[in-house]
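Appendix B, example 12.
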Amino acid sequence: MDILYQRDGRATASEIHEAMPEPPSYSAVRAKLRVLEEKGHVRHEEEALRYVYLPTVARDTARRSALRHLVSTFFEGSVEEAVAALLDLSAANLSKKDLDRISNLNRRG
């Protein structure tokens, strides 16, 4: 899905396979696309004898859904625990601007 979103929402199985850092077999990529299509996450269009895959939901919607699933699965539904884990991971890399933004978000919440 990441590759589809990075490629302006359109890619063939071959393009997806080529863009993967450590790709499985080409047939495994096609099988995964078939599963994603069956689940309603992607659809395809035929162009010049090949399938071009497109996500069925906007990236922002998919991001929110994935975050909800992540928080539910790994943090027992606790947004606070998820945020704490993220801050712990990135504490050394946060700029003053980042910290100020997080602080402002916290005040609004």
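Helices lie at 2-6, 13-19, 26-38, 59-74, 79-90, 96-108. The chain has two domains: 2-55, 59-108.
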